[in-house]
NTP pyrophosphohydrolase
Amino acid sequence: MTTVTASPGVGNRTAVADPGLPAGHVNIADRVLQKTAERAAADIIGVDAKSVRVEIVAARDTAAVRVSTPFPVPRLDDTEAVRAATPVLEAATAAQSEIRSRLAHLFGREISRVDLTISGATLPQRKRVL
């Protein structure tokens, strides 16, 4: 039987694996969860992961996440892009919801809330075409 337990600051989630697996524990450090959340948020929002800051506050079976990040906006001299852009509040709300569901999937626990603070504006990342 294998027991999976999160590290001390993350709560006490325990799962038991199939009897055919070797016994043991898996501990995930808080730093790993933080970096995973930063990368996921950056990917969803469309900014560089280095500019995203995440704080995770965990309880027994849930976690609350605080994300601080610049937000991508179109170049203001590109009137066509400005007209086509989703309003920032609407885009931020959608990003909040997607961050919540992706982190719940990645962490295997409920994310009770995601607080998103927009710390500035940035031009969207350009995706490479291979």
